[in-house]
Design a protein that fits this description.
The chain is an all-alpha fold and 74 residues long. The chain has one domain. It has two helices and no strands. Helix 1 packs antiparallel against helix 2. The longest helix is centred in the middle third of the chain and has 51 residues, at 2-52. The model has no long low-confidence stretch (mean pLDDT 83).
C-alpha cells in the first residue's frame, strides 16, 4: 500500500517537474525573442542616426558598443 502511494507521488512529482521544464523553456524562448527584438530596434535606431548625418557614425557606434558592454545586446 505504501509503495503504491509512493509510486503515485513520484509520478505526480515527475509530471510537475516536466511542466516546470516546459514553463522555463517558454520563459527562455520569450526572453530570447525580446532580446532579439531589442537588438533589432537598437540597430534600426543606429542606422537612422547614421543616415541622418555622416558625423553621427562614431556616436552610433559608441552607443551600440556601450549597449553591448552593459549586456543589453548579446
Amino acid at each position: 500500500m505504501v509503495s503504491v502511494v509512493a509510486q503515485g507521488f513520484q509520478k505526480v512529482v515527475i509530471e510537475q517537474i516536466d511542466l516546470l521544464k516546459g514553463s522555463l523553456q517558454d520563459i527562455y524562448d520569450e526572453s530570447e525573442r525580446i532580446a532579439l527584438n531589442n537588438l533589432f530596434v537598437e540597430t534600426q535606431k543606429t542606422f537612422k542616426k547614421l543616415s541622418n548625418s555622416p558625423h553621427s557614425f562614431e556616436k552610433a557606434f559608441n552607443s551600440l558598443q556601450r549597449l553591448s558592454k552593459n549586456g543589453q545586446i548579446f
